[in-house]
Design goal:
- With about 350 residues, this protein is α/β, with parallel strands linked by helices.
- It contains 6 helices and 15 strands.
- The strands form 6 sheets. The chain has a 5-stranded mixed β-sheet, with helices on one face. Strands 1-15 form a two-stranded antiparallel sheet.
- β2 and β3 form a beta hairpin.
- The radius of gyration is 18 Å and the shape is globular.
- The chain starts with 17 loop residues before the first strand and ends in a 9-residue tail after the last helix.
């Protein structure tokens, strides 16, 4: 998220009052999306965490790696993943790679999901699925020894790592931010992009010098499973290449129309029978446009704001809203009630 003067996105710079999308750069990448002084005392320069996976007690659904040995950080990550484990159903462990970096181009962080297409049993062909969802659908790990997601965090941000939801003045709640980023890597995100003012799907641009922990393939101009639910206000399906050819002005116009919606049945039912509106401002914001609910759809404190493009300092959301869970159910996740 950038500062308030520049109006922010997933990739975010720290902001005092209205902090647009603290939610980091959702660099959606489905493979086969500040303070000057660091609040972290012990962050390793090591980006390869594959040999340092940490199991979570009483949580077989997730494990994680992080390039920090601070107990409060490990506790906050474990707590956040524990929240997600209350709502998801899968028999394949989801591996999360959290990497603190001192310079993300002024952004707080970003989420890079691993992914796969055309796997045996895939509900849709020529469509990118987040690896964690694909594994859940087939009941086996399609990519052994790879993380399901890389989540990059700016170590020069004043994070609150407590799990009690009580950040101080000027702080961002780490659990809230991580809950959001994990949601993107579970599949709440678009592969939409602009290429010289032409709209495209299958867009990924690695920057900031970070090399993902998993191989980056050619995305072949294909949509994510989330993208297959994108429609205009006229009910036109954006993944219909006859209406919206890839690498076209028509697709770019749709991406910046402020008139895009998610057509999943569950999400519509949860949203009082209306397709939820998505964030599609007139200026395309890479990593933020299309991959969030429309700005201001929900008031501060509503759990559905966890996927809003803007965020306020000290805002705390420690559970996914029912609409967000409906999105995930629509793209293929089995969602369960934490109360049974």
């Amino acid at each position: 998220m950038k500062n308030s003067e520049n109006n922010i996105r997933f990739r975010c710079k720290k902001q005092k009052k209205v902090a647009p999308s603290i939610f980091l750069a959702v660099l959606i990448c489905f493979f086969t999306s500040c303070s000057d002084n660091s609040t972290l005392d012990s962050v390793s320069d090591m980006e390869d965490n594959s040999d340092n996976v940490i199991p979570i007690p009483d949580n077989d659904m997730f494990d994680f790696a992080v390039n920090s040995d601070q107990p409060e950080i490990e506790s906050a990550i474990a707590h956040t993943l524990g929240i997600w484990s209350e709502y998801l159903e899968t028999n394949v462990t989801i591996r999360v790679n959290v990497v603190f970096l001192p310079d993300l181009g002024g952004f707080l962080g970003r989420s890079i999901p691993n992914g796969v297409k055309n796997f045996e049993g895939a509900p849709l062909q020529d469509t990118w699925y987040p690896l964690s969802l694909a594994n859940a659908l087939v009941g086996e790990n399609l990519k052994d020894n790879e993380f399901d997601m890389d989540i990059l965090i700016n170590s020069n941000t004043d994070w609150y790592f407590g799990i009690d939801g009580n950040p101080g003045t000027g702080q961002y709640d780490f659990v809230t931010a991580l809950l959001h980023e994990v949601c993107h890597s579970l599949g709440f995100g678009s592969l939409a992009g602009l290429n010289e003012n032409l709209g495209i799907f299958g867009d990924f641009q690695a920057d900031d010098g970070y090399i993902p922990s998993f191989p980056v393939p050619d995305l072949e101009g294909l949509p994510s499973v989330y993208d297959t639910y994108l429609i205009t206000g006229q009910m036109e399906v954006l993944s219909d290449s006859e209406l919206f050819p890839n690498n076209s002005v028509a697709l770019a116009d749709a991406f910046t129309s402020d008139d895009l919606f998610f057509s999943g049945n569950g999400a519509s039912l949860e949203n009082s029978g209306q397709e939820p509106k998505l964030f599609a401002p007139s200026i395309f914001l890479d990593g933020s446009s299309i991959s969030h609910l429309d700005q201001g759809s929900f008031e501060t404190g509503n759990p559905n704001r966890i996927m809003d493009p803007f965020f306020i300092e000290q805002e705390v959301i420690h559970e996914p809203g029912q609409l967000i869970l409906a999105f995930l159910r629509d793209i293929g996740w089995t969602i369960v009630s934490p109360n049974g």
